[in-house]
Each structure stands twice: as C-alpha cells, then as structure tokens.
Design goal:
Helix content of chain A: 55-70%
Largest sheet of chain B: 2 strands, antiparallel
Subcellular location (chain B): Cytoplasmic vesicle, COPI-coated vesicle membrane; Endoplasmic reticulum membrane; Golgi apparatus membrane
Strand content of chain B: under 5%
Number of helices of chain A: 1
Structural class of chain B: mainly alpha
InterPro entries (chain B): ER_ret_rcpt
Largest sheet of chain A: none
Order of helices and strands of chain A: H
Order of helices and strands of chain B: HHHHHHEHHE
Family (chain B): Belongs to the ERD2 family.
Helix content of chain B: over 70%
Strand order of the largest sheet of chain B: 1-2
Shape of chain B: globular
Structural class of chain A: mainly alpha
Oligomer: heterodimer
Pfam families (chain B): ER_lumen_recept
Radius of gyration of chain B: 17 Å
Distance between the termini of chain B: 45 Å
GO molecular function, one term (chain B): ER retention sequence binding
Chain lengths: 10, 212
C-alpha cells in the first residue's frame, strides 16, 4: 500500500 | 523519519523562505516566474487536502500548513503587493502544456481511482515539472540573481534528498511508491543543468548568466 507515503511525506 | 527525509524537508523550507525573504527585503519579485509559483500553490493545495482527513503528527501538519501559507504569501507578493516589479513579459511559458498532460496522466496512472488519490497523484506529477516556467524565464533573460539561484538550489536539492529517503525506506522498510519515485527522478533530472551552473559559477562567486 502507498498509504504511508501519501500522508506522511510532504 | 530518516536523515534524508528531514534534510529534504528543511531544504524545501529553506527554499521557500529564501524566496519570500528575497522578495520582501528587495521589495521586488523581478526574475521570479509567477507561473511557477502558481503551479507550486496548486501542488500544495491538491496534495495537502489530507489535512482535513488524516492527522499524522504535529510536525507533519505544521509543515504542510507552513508550505501552503508560504505558497499563497508568495503569490500575494508577486501578483498584488509587488505586482509592479513582476516581469510578466518574460514569464511566457504556456502552463497549459504542463497542466493538460499532467492532469490526463494522473487519471490514467494512479494507485486508486478516487478523488483524493487522483489529486495526490496530480500534485506529484505537477510538482516534477512546476519549475519549468522559472527555468524557461531564466533561459529567456539569460541570467538570474544570485539569491534566486540559492532558492533554486535548495528547491532542487530537496527532491534529490527525497530520492535517497526512498532508497532508505525501500532498504529498511521494504516500502516504495513507483509514482513518487519516477516523478522525483524526473524532477531532479530537470535541475541537473542548473546544478552544474550553480556549482561551477555561483559557488565560485560569479553571477549566473547564460551565453547569448
């Protein structure tokens, strides 16, 4: 899943 | 959070602050592409809609709010407060040539066909090319103020540092996002020519000017 990147990174 | 992520974010923040301070101190936005600044405001706005849907950390929320706030403050400076100094005659890049393909691509190549996900993808693709109006403007006028080149350097460095962050995350967390990686590579490659000029000229105390 790309969930972490979508929200965590800027 | 790893060292590349953090320094990348700080480099991005430095770029944004340098630009704002440059305009504020000189009371002028000469040499700055308002079109690139509009694109960056669109990038931040479409990507950080998740401020309304998910909370990650105080750091995450503050940085997103600061980036968005600074983007709109820059637009206010360029198009309102210091409008008289804006060099619109040289800011002639046709942004529809970026917006249309990038918009189309974000509908075709994304992780999930949902509004927020498509907007996130759109912002990632758009960011990778958003600097082109600025680079086009510099190539047209043949020169850039040194402070503008510092802005561009930190703005380019930020995505390069993110590339190392993604290598780190792949290696230690087994995590990767192909959309971000490919767009990040494109974005960094677009700065390579500028990086070369920055290192060979600006860092040696010379002004960045291109051969006629």
């Amino acid at each position: 899943s790309n969930e972490p990147l979508r929200h965590d990174e800027l | 959070m790893n060292v590349f992520r953090l320094t990348g974010d700080l480099s991005h923040l430095a770029a944004i602050i340098i630009l704002l301070l440059k305009i504020w101190k000189t009371r002028s936005c000469a040499g700055i592409s308002g079109k690139s600044q509009i694109l960056f405001a669109v990038v931040f706005t479409s990507r950080y809609l998740d401020l309304l849907t998910s909370f990650i950390s105080l750091y995450n929320t503050s940085m997103k709010v600061i980036y968005i706030g600074c983007a709109y403050a820059t637009l206010y400076f360029v198009y309102m407060k210091f409008k008289a100094t804006y060099d619109g005659n040289h800011d002639t890049f046709r942004v529809e040539f970026l917006l249309v393909p990038v918009g189309g691509l974000s509908f075709l190549v994304n992780h999930d066909f949902s509004p927020l996900e498509i907007l996130w993808t759109f912002s990632i693709y758009l960011e990778s090319v958003a600097i082109l109006p600025q680079l086009f403007m510099i190539s047209k006028t043949g020169e850039a103020e040194t402070i503008t080149t510092h802005y561009l350097f930190f703005l380019g460095l930020y995505r390069a540092l993110y590339l190392f962050n993604w290598i780190w995350r792949f290696y230690f967390e087994g995590f990767f996002d192909m959309i971000a990686i490919v767009a990040g590579l494109v974005q960094t490659i677009l700065y390579c020519d500028f990086f070369y000029l920055y290192i060979t000229k600006v860092l040696k105390g010379k002004k960045l000017s291109l051969p006629a």
